[in-house]
Amino acid sequence: MTCCQTDPYGEELAAGNFRYKLNTPLRVQGGLSVQIGTMVLVSADVEFINYANMRLREDDGYTDFSQSNEDIKEVYKSVVNLKAGGEVRFNNLFLRAGGGYYPSPSSSISAPDIYSYIGNVPGSYWEIATGLGYRIEHFFFDLVFQELPMTRNITCISTMLPAST
Q: The whole model's pTM is what?
């Protein structure tokens, strides 16, 4: 038995190569840093991403992406990512810590079968980072530990079921 990719209605998708153009999501970023004395630096960043604005466009003269673009609008939404961190300096030694929050780009959808060809959309997650740096005239050394504490539920459903005997 061979398995093939299907659309939400169970119809086999044509095999082959497709030429397309992808409009990536709108992304706007801003940040602010404040130095306190000569030892402390605090910073924060905000990032707006409109995932629902992604679009596929044909580049081969005949492929129609209108349904895929409607699905993208239904599945994805805009998000605001938040990041903050700080650094403390002791002569040539730097201690750093920070983190970020990244909300899920998926909105609640009414047609879960869209996932069969769009794929699993990630949920929200936090990022935590700590670091150590050392600097002398023309030399930098940085060591970073980063953790992404997240739980992901993945559902695998095959659209090709063997015939019952």
A: 0.69
